[in-house]
Amino acid sequence: MFKKPSYRKRTLLAVATTCSIQFSGILVINNYGTTIYSNLGYGTEKQLLLLCAWLTLAFGCGVLALLVVDRMPRPKLIGGGIAGCMVALIIEAALVAKYATSTNTAALKAAVAMIFIYVVFYEICLDGTQFAYVGELFPTHLRAKGMSLGVAGICLMNVMWLQVAPTAFQ
Hints:
single chain, mainly alpha
């Protein structure tokens, strides 16, 4: 995989794709959702309800992605998904920076809505698409090894984000 230049390029593209998708922040939102909702002023019961709703929406959008992933070019779908996630997180971050300590309930609800909009983009455009795309980068005889490297990139990013996220929330 590393001797032939075209295979090296495919390997680099596979690892870069999976790592960049993990850089969108999905793992931190998934694992620290209750902390995020707590910082926005929601009580324990509401935090859990919001997290359940978020996970249910994620599942539904993941199923919906089955209808989308083969109808659009995968690079454009991934690019659009990253852009959509980025815009949702920029708006969410601006709302949190301005209104997290306020009593403006409309702004706090809008911040939560941005997290939900984010997961729609992530699930429909990025989550399943990355595996289809990475698998298609490699010829058949290297596909399993290429997928393994792509998933290793995901695991590496997961370890990194889960190590730094608790410090970031303090």
